[in-house]
Amino acid sequence: MPQRNSIRNPFISSNTTAVAIPQGEGPTARRPSTSKGNRLTQFFSSSPKTKEQLTAQAALRSQINPAISAPSLSLPTISLSTAKAGEANMDEPPTTLFQPPSVAEAKRQAKADAQFAPLVSQNHRYVSKVSGEFPDPVMDEAPYYYLLTTYISYLVLIIFGHVRDFFGKRFTPENYRHLKPANGYAALNSDFDNFYVRRLKLRIDDCFARPTTGVPGRYITLLDRKTDNFNKNYQFTGTTTETLNMSSYNYLGFAQSEGPCADAVEETVKKYGISVASPRADSGTSDLALEVEDRIAKFVGKQSAMVFSMGFTTNASSFPALVARLSGAMISSFKHNDMGDLEKLLRESISQGQPRTHRPWKKILVVVEGLYSMEGTISTSLLMKAHSIGALGPRGAVFDYFGIDPAEVDILMGTLTKSFGANGGYVAGDKHIIDKLRITNAATIYGESPTPPVLMQILSSLKIISGELMPGQGEERLQRIAFNSRYLRLGLKRLGYIVYGHDDSPIIPILLYNPAKMPAFSHEMLRRKISVVIVGYPATPLSPLAHDDLDRLLAACDEIGDVLQLKFSTGIAGGADHLPDG
Q1: What is the DSSP string of 385-399?
Q2: Which of 105, 453, 480, 574 could cross-link 493 (Cys pair, CB 3.0–4.6 Å)?
Q3: DSSP code string of 55-103
Q4: Dihedral through CA 135, CA 140, CA 141, CA 145, nearest 10?
Q5: Checking phi first, is residue 567 left (phi over 0); if not, alpha (psi -120 to 50) or beta?
Q6: pLDDT tens digits for 363-380?
Q7: What secondary structure does DSSP assign to 248-272, as a single string?
């Protein structure tokens, strides 16, 4: 029986069965192996090879294994032809298994990844939805030592600020001209209100309003600047710094310079221009605006909706239209996210009626946030405001997150900035309510209309979220921001930071307490090429971020937390066991 030698393919895994070829069969007999082990065996063999045999083997090796030069190195190829076994196919050029991208393609892909990170694992997805009872977030309190030193720090800043103002108004009055009336004109600023700006904010002003260029995606490019007069004026240095972006409200990563949204916006500019140059009540209502309003109404589960060019204008113009300014309306507030205190306030308002006359109120309007943009908490009573559109729930609507019917809420207001990469706001409700707002809202009559490019950005984003455009992409973005939010929040808590808000909230505020630690935290993060927001302190994890980006941020927070002594938490909120009594 002929001897069999096993031949193993170097491009298959080790657990693949080797193919055995009998020696002597085929066109030519298989040459014995001349590996290092065989050569050693021949060296100690009692029957050495003759010179002619060695010469023949050397010639055979030169034919089978020719000398390999640098230009001949290439990836393994396979011929997709009908060549027969044992015959060389030299007619058709070989087809490479893997073709590396060109330089232009590599740059384009790197640019896209810098704006929206690729999903490296399906485990980095999570569906945010309430199942069962909605728990209150576990809150930690800082030690009294840090609370006391924080109050003392603010007190010292205020005292020294007034001392500087006392001498400054007498020796350098030209620096305070804007606070005094002159030539029959009133002062430009109130002395009391301007004190915070000139004595507290100006000290750390370099941490705010840093100029940027490009798309605020996964990475953001800062325009470097310097100051020679303690943050009163800045000069650009002509250089830029690319940083990991943890400072933008770009929840789902739709603020991209390439992709379906950008392509649709470009075509819209060619068709509609950049502005309609008219209020909605005149000639500013286009078919694109009507389509966006219809799409938003269906998305939030309402009969009708109307859009505005600014989120602040949405509230500032809609409230006076709902509750007339001259109606004698009174504003009352209740404790944050405390439905018991709200119920108590409503009972008192209904029973006592209006002040002095005690006549019953004609209407009571309750306004709450869906997602509080500073504390990161989610409202447990959705009565009017839906700030969380595109940030919570399986479909990006807060009703899906709680599993309730949108009909239970009379009016919805929301922003179109944070989740859609656009700007503006919307109001949605029953048709008769929206029709009334269209003719009584001051922004509709006097305000500018949303521009066509912005409307198309909103429309294309909504189509992606709903799955009409690029199926599966919207679902992935919603699940990625849900995973990033929980992962980053839990990681910060386990590091020892005090973090406010619910676990599913994409708003993640870290409490720094001492005012001197705010610029220190911002500067230390910038040294590590990470952009964060201080004072208006939510650090918002984005869907464009990758899992490694969050680990990089947590590692930086771990280092800075030790240096600045920011780890006030006991770790209970992050899952640590409670400390024993005593």
Answers
A1: B-TTTTTSSTTS-HH
A2: 574
A3: HHHHHHHHHHSPPP-GGG----EE--S-PPTT----SS--EES--PPPH
A4: 180
A5: beta
A6: 888 888 877 777 778 876
A7: ---TT----SSSHHHHHHHHHHHHH
DSSP-derived secondary structure for 323-338: S-GGG--------TT-
Q: What are phi and psi of 163, to 5 degrees?
A: -65, -45
DSSP three-state, residue 553: helix
User: How far apart are the C-alpha atoms of 391 and 370, rounded to whole Å?
Assistant: 10
Find out whether 457 and 416 touch, Cβ atoms under 8 Å.
no
What are the pLDDT digits (tens) for 212-239?
A: 998 888 899 999 999 999 899 999 999 9
Question: Do 438 and 326 meet the contact criterion of CB atoms below 8 Å apart?
Answer: no
Task: Give the model's confidence band at 80: pLDDT under 50 very low, under 70 low, under 90 confident, else very high.
Answer: very low
Can you read off the two tokens belonging to residue 72?
């001949």
Query: In Å, what is the CA distance from 558 to each residue of 41, 286, 408?
Result: 60, 52, 44
Angle, CA 40 vertex, CA 38 and CA 46 arms, to 5°: 95
pTM of structure: 0.76
- How many other CB atoms sit within 10 Å of the CB of residue 152? 11
Average pLDDT of the residues of the chain? 80
In angstroms, what is the C-alpha Rg of the chain? Answer: 34
Which residue has 């250089």 as its token pair?
A: 239
pLDDT tens-digit series, residues 493-549: 988 899 988 888 888 888 888 889 999 999 999 999 999 988 643 445 555 678 888
